[in-house]
Design brief:
Length: 107
């Protein structure tokens, strides 16, 4: 899901138990490298309760910096409990995102 506004982002996070968001920018080369890996993980988790979204920080940089502490892109945040909590995946890759999701979704 490509989220266009910070209001859309907040609504998506609040409406779902687990939301993984790739914060990126069109001018960011590392973001372009992460994009196919993020898409692969999203496809791997298709049909589960995990929702994947992408948000271009140029659509709300001040909000994402102040509310989520973003300092650089790409950044992947995993929101849980309908947005009550979130975690940052450092050095995001398909392996690190999958590992984190496996950890939080295991019974």
């Amino acid at each position: 899901i490509e989220v266009k506004t910070t209001d859309e982002l907040k609504a998506l996070v609040k409406a779902n138990r687990i939301v993984v968001v790739d914060f990126h920018a069109s001018w960011c080369n590392p973001c372009k490298s992460l994009a196919p890996k993020f898409e692969k993980v999203a496809n791997d988790w298709d049909g589960t309760k995990v929702v994947f979204a992408k948000f271009d920080i140029d659509n709300g940089l001040d909000v994402v910096k102040s509310e989520y502490g973003l300092r650089a892109v790409p950044t992947v945040l995993v929101f849980t409990e309908c947005g009550e909590k979130f975690s940052m995946i450092k050095d995001p890759s398909d392996v690190s995102i999958n590992s984190y999701l496996n950890k939080i979704t295991s019974p």
